[in-house]
Amino acid sequence: MFGLSPDSKHVLDAISKSQAIIEFDLKGNVLAANENFCGALGYSLTEIVGKHHSMFCDPAYAATAEYREFWARLGRGEYDAGAYKRLAKGAREIWIQASYNPVFKHGRPYKVVKFAADITDVKKKSVEDAGKLDAISRSQAAIEFTPTGEILTANENFCSAMGYSLTEITGKHHGMFCDPAYTRTDEYANFWRRLALGEFISNEFVRYGKGGKEIWIQAAYNPIKDANGKVYKVVKFATDVTQRMSAISQLGEALRHLSEGDLTKTVDSPFVPSMEQLRHDFNATVIKLAATVKTIGESVHAIAAGSREIGSAADSFSKRTEQQASSIEETAAALEQITTTVNDSSHRADEAGKLVAKTKQGAEQSGLVVRNAVSAMDQIEQSSREITNIIGVIDDIAFQTNLLALNAGVEAARAGEAGKGFAVVAQEVRELAQRSASAAKEIKSLITTSSELVRNGVNLVGETGKALETIVAQVGDINVNVAAIVEGSKEQATGLKEINQAVNSMDQATQKNAAMVEESTAASHKLAGEAEALRGLLAQFHLAEAHSPRTVQKHPASPARHLIARVAKAHGAALPAAGSWEEF
Question: Which of 130, 153, 223, 371 has the fewest Cβ atoms within 10 Å of its own Cβ atom?
Answer without folding.
Answer: 130
